[in-house]
Amino acid sequence: MVLATGGAGFVGSHVVVSLLTCGFDVVVLDDFSNSQVEAARRINKLAGGRRAKFVRGDVADLRTLRDLFRTHRFDAVIHFAGLKAVGESVAAPERYYDVNVSGSARLLATMAEHDVSRFVFSSSATVYGLAEKVPIAEDAPLDPTNPYGRTKLIVETLLADVAAARTQTQIVMLRYFNPVGAHPSGMLGEDPIGEPTNLFPLIARSVGLAGQPLRIFGTDYPTPDGTCIRDYIHVQDLADGHIAALSALLSTDLARGVALPINLGNGHGASVRQAVAAFEVASGRTVPTIDAPQRPGDVAASIADPSRAAALLGWRPRRDLDAMCRDMWRFRVLNPQGYRDAAEEHETPR
Ligand code: WQD
């Protein structure tokens, strides 16, 4: 049985569907502060009759955690729950440290109390900061440039200390590059609560009713077309990566006594203009854009070296940028208002 904290979120929901489809029993702990109950209902419709058990609660609440671990025997924990908006973390660092760092520490302490020793951490390429060279391997310098990235690095450091203290643990830290796309059914996708800040939700919004043009942050970078390059990774490939990591922890001695970082990225990049062009092809719509100044904190290029994931997990991304755009567009067409299209709020599904 697997505990997935934050399993109703964008990446978490896609992973939970894959876990169920692969035959795992899953309990999801989510406070629904940055996810929708409707996503939980759809997860349980997508997994061929298999259903996750959803518990509404805060990962930082020790009573909630202890009740959960007292009533379930978990073989592993996948920890998605956390705050992830860079700009918001600059404005509200206290909240980011509380949720991302304290929440992780309490979860790990409760795991130790109940001898649960396999842990998959949802980390981020943000821990690399302004990478000196690309592609970026896991042994590159770690120098995050914002509070969000620093909370991820602090948790990674905590995990290294946990692994040193309890050598029977197996811990992998999956460093996502830029997750994009949606479930091929069009039933799950990225539906940020509040104002989106990531590129693709903003591209999609620019072709929506609002027709708000996309601002291209910086056209004077030292890149072929002057715009930033990122390593976009399909959320379904991310889900496959989590299944591969979990299977390796359950069937081998992978990461015994260490906290092992593993990049999940494509290994090649796309510029903002290339992303816009791919979305226009997939949607058949024109994306209105305006050139804008560089966004503080952005790096010119961030591209993964995914060779460790291939070597240790047998994982390789299988979906390209066109597939990301096609799947994302399908979700947007079927859910113009995201999950809010669905019926009114329901009780947390059991
Ligand atoms: C991508 C590119 C922008 C919006 C962030 C988080 C990271 C991870 C992924 C969680 C950049 C440009 C964007 C816009 C633009 N999240 N852009 N106009 O900053 O690479 O990474 O999301 O783990 O932690 O930092 O992604 O989508 O914000 O930006 O031109 O309106 O698109 O400048 O070059 P980023 P992003």
TrEMBL record:
Descriptive protein name: UDP-glucose 4-epimerase
| Subunit structure of this chain's protein | Homodimer.
**Pathway linked to the protein:** Carbohydrate metabolism; galactose metabolism
Cross-referenced InterPro entries, in alphabetical order?
Answer: NAD(P)-bd_dom, NAD(P)-bd_dom_sf, UDP_G4E
Q: Which residues form a coiled coil?
A: none
The family note in this entry says: Belongs to the NAD(P)-dependent epimerase/dehydratase family.
Q: What is its EC number?
A: 5.1.3.2
Q: Which UniProt key words apply to this protein?
A: Carbohydrate metabolism, Isomerase, NAD
Q: Which cofactor does it need?
A: NAD(+)
Q: Which gene encodes it?
A: galE
UniProt-recorded Gene Ontology molecular function terms: UDP-glucose 4-epimerase activity
Recorded superkingdom: Bacteria
Q: Which reaction does it catalyse?
A: UDP-alpha-D-glucose = UDP-alpha-D-galactose
The answer on whether this UniProt entry bears the keyword NAD reads yes
A GO-annotated cellular component: cytosol
Q: Which GO terms describe its biological process?
A: galactose metabolic process
